[in-house]
Specification:
- By secondary structure, the protein is an all-alpha fold.
- It contains 11 helices and 2 strands.
- The chain has a two-stranded antiparallel ribbon with strand order 1-2.
- The protein starts with a strand and ends in a 15-residue tail after the last helix.
Length: 258
């Protein structure tokens, strides 16, 4: 369930620590009693009791300490971050006030989540899902970042400006290559959006509209570049073939947002 957050107009998640804990406990096929037994074996007298775990899941206990968070995450073999915020909805705002107006994916970047969920001898079902969501989200936002970069190169070319300083590694990225990679960036965004929807991720209508706007902007840039004559005849033919599906983009792209 989601609500609209008045601070930004973005959707804010209403899931709780307890519902997230239940989600991954269910995926691990553990009852509350078995989870409590496991914690007892691992943490002894410091372990959370079955009664406390039940109250957390039912939302009766909301003041969950970091020690308790780590205990539960350890038992479920997931990153504690998945309990602190809902990684199943990377577009939504965090329900945890300490993260302000950051999206779930933005929070992941703070904690270098791609390292946290790295494969160390095999991932369980829940962790595999979390990692797939984060990987797909990364492809999406890489596409967004590259879209803005390549659009900037083309707009500078239309204004007869030198894109970058000769000392900058991006100096050689002229309008011809930018057209290829701008189109690829749009495709990356669209593919990621499709994949995330397929696995149950909520894509805000605002993001879908942004993609439509970007597609329209690309067509406009294409027309202006042709009118301005800033693309070579050979490159124009290659771009035309790519747009018609008769050719493919270069396999290696020169940059991402990393």
């Amino acid at each position: 369930m989601t609500v609209i957050d008045d601070r930004t107009g973005l959707q804010a998640d209403t899931s709780t620590f307890g519902t997230r804990m239940k989600r991954y406990r269910t995926m691990a096929k553990l009852s509350i009693a078995k989870l409590a037994d496991y914690l007892k074996q691992e943490y002894g007298e410091l372990a959370l009791s079955e009664n406390v775990l039940t109250n957390i899941e039912l939302g009766r206990k909301t003041d969950i300490s970091m020690d308790a968070t780590i205990q539960i995450a350890h038992a479920l073999h997931i990153t504690p971050l998945a309990l602190m915020c809902d990684l199943e909805e990377p577009f939504l705002l965090s329900d945890n006030p300490i993260f302000g107006t950051r999206t779930k994916y933005g929070i992941c970047n703070i904690f270098l989540s791609e390292m946290i969920v790295s494969d160390r001898g095999g991932l369980n079902e829940a962790m595999t899902r979390i990692k797939s969501i984060l990987d797909e989200s990364k492809r999406y936002w890489d596409g967004v970042a590259n879209y803005h970069l390549h659009t900037d190169v083309l707009r500078r070319a239309l204004r007869d400006e030198t894109p970058y300083s000769p000392d900058d590694p991006l100096y050689s990225l002229g309008p011809n290559l930018s057209f290829y990679y701008l189109l690829q960036s749009l495709d990356d965004i669209e593919k990621s959006m499709t994949v995330m929807e397929t696995i149950g991720i909520t894509i805000p209508d605002s993001e879908k509209q942004n993609l439509k706007t970007a597609r329209a902007s690309f067509k406009s840039l294409h027309e202006m570049c042709i009118a301005k004559g800033i693309l070579s005849a050979d490159e124009l033919q290659k771009i035309h073939d790519v747009m018609n599906g008769d050719n493919q983009l270069p396999v290696e792209r020169p940059l991402t947002s990393d």
